[in-house]
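In the previous lecture we treated proteins in isolation. Real proteins rarely work alone, and many bind small molecules. This record shows how such a complex is specified: first the sequence, then the SMILES for zinc ion.
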Amino acid sequence: MALNTPLRHLFDYRPPDGRDPAALVPGLRVEVPFGRRTLVGMLIECAAGSSLPAARLRAARAVLDTEPVLDATTFGLVRWAADYYHHPLGEAFAAALPAALRAGRPLIARETRFRLVPGGPEALAAAKRLGPRQRELAAVLLAHESLGAAELELLGAGVGEVVKAFLARGWIASFEVEPPAVAAPAGRPASGPVLTGAQAVAVREIGASLGGFAPYLLHGVTGSGKTEVYLRVIEQVLARGEQALVLVPEIGLTPQAVARFSSRFPVPLAVLHSGLADGERLAMWRAARSGAAPLVIGTRSAIFVPLARPGIVIVDEEHDSSYKQQEGFRYSARDLAVVRAQRHGIPVVLGSATPSLETLQQARSGRYRRVDLPQRTGSAGVPTMRIVDLRAHEDRHGIATPSMLAIRRHLGDGGQVLLYLNRRGFAPTLFCPGCGWAAPCSDCDARLTVHLRTHRLVCHHCGASQPVPFACPRCGAELRPVGQGTERIEDALDELFAGVPVVRIDRDTVHGRGEFETALERVHSGEARILVGTQMLTKGHDFPDVTLVVVLNADQGLFGTDFRASERLAQSIVQVAGRAGRATRPGEVLIQSACPEHPLLTQLLAAGYDGFAEVALAERAAAHWPPFSRLAVLRAEAASREQALAFLAAARDAAPAAERGPVRLLGPAPAAMERRAARYRAQLLLESADRAPLQRLLALWLPRVAQLPAARRVRWAIDVDPLEVA
Ligand SMILES: [Zn+2]
Ligand SMILES: [Zn+2]
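The predicted 3D structure, ligand included, written as tokens:
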């Protein structure tokens, strides 16, 4: 049995009393005693015996399923992923299942509902001395055909007693219903536009490979119509009677995105994301599993959804970092999509305007087939890109004079303007010119960010916050905000362009999916003329009337500590630039930088993302970074620096030289931000030219690491193929 615990081994149980072990197959959920608790585990295999003495072998309580909840391929995928990412198998299965199934609820949960019996209304009318709660329930029963748990909940606590009383009097009866199926969209499906030549080639090529494993990189510049290619290929998949699984980044799954798919296909659609209630999620998951929903769209964890008739996997915006789980079971849904497609024997399409260097290298080496959409659809031209040298121009509140003039010109021509700054809040920090005090976080190696709207200093790393002080706490001098945040830019725009409506999109103004929708609507309706925002603006949303994009501070990404910093900066610039001029008007992109001769910027401007990628890949090859090497990071966090480093040093020593082979162990070293949320963080980096020796070492080494006495004093985790090693 695999149990949802951090322990790295499986657990033995006797079959529940009276159950024939021959009828027990892998993939069934089984309820078992664990200490004093009861856990829901996943049956991995039935063994003939156990190494445990018979007296200590406990019996499982109950088998919860009549058939495996996961099909053999998905079951195998979870096992493979737990092996590859070296994560406890029980936790991996827990991450793969919807919460309702994890908690032991039945796969098909019937709902109990209540309705008035024939003659019930008359009996109620004749009943004397009903209390206020009883009268309330009677009124609701009369107004509805039947009531379920969700409706009854609205009547407040204690309603269960009233329902029981009504049942006892024979006024109402209960009955059970199957959960509602996922419905097909109403209305006639829309037809698509005429394909461009490049789109038609892409559709033909991918379509020709249906029925067999084939990995594709679909590299389409922004506005080139990647989604239309997905839709046409999905059309072919559905015509074959198969299912399509589409993965999208966390923030990309808006109702508009879903509507784009549902308006084209008259089939039930299962949508899976983190915002679903447990019951909804289970219903969607079941529709994918049974095949009732031929089209399944979801975020990261949807990679583990079982499919009855898999036909294709599509990963949109494959470069997006939300595909990598950053805590717990640290899997990459993008990479697992390729593994899964191979196991099913179906094509997988990784689509992006700015592919990750890993995926580009796979295409260069011929392992992935590459399909290009080099041109925007319609008449939209490629935006012109220019650098604004921050050293050569005056700036007002972070907006340089040439940018200001351009904003004025585009607004005057009726266009919308987008300002991108990857830093929220008012200013990155508060500084004392008297003594040099600079608002440190007491728990992190970081400065507190000024948020003037809420009048607080906030740590963006641990969340700690405090009121903005009136004067320097050390010397009493007047404090000054330093640098720019989106909040300050919004203020500056109010001053510089009085009366022009501005909408700010960042994590402070936009909390849920609903608020994001509202903000987008203000832009699409044309009510807002200027958009200011962070990374959130770069994620695949079209703003057809935006004609000018200003990247306010490109330099933040040029000098990042992480080896992927420049890749991320290039992706952000290209993605945000892609928002400009998508309708008929040509776009203009201004990039403000204090180091305009930086080779990355000049290469990006001269040769586009592909040109940048050539140079960046050459740099990675020379430095032995991925995709030219394989990495894993052992991270540790402890109350003191010594504990964290001592654990990592002991871990390093626990890997005997004979097993290391070609794997290099680098460190231990403190993390780039050593202290976060009052914990000291350090890491040991493992690097290998090839995957196999690294995997062999991890498999032998990690069980020993877990046994180290020093491991008890730290929180540690292994991250295979980490996104960051800083
Ligand atoms: Zn001071
Ligand atoms: Zn902090």
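Summary for your notes: Residues 432, 434-435, 437, 472, 474-475, 477 surround zinc ion (ligand 1) (CB under 6 Å). Residues 599-623 form the longest helix (25 residues).
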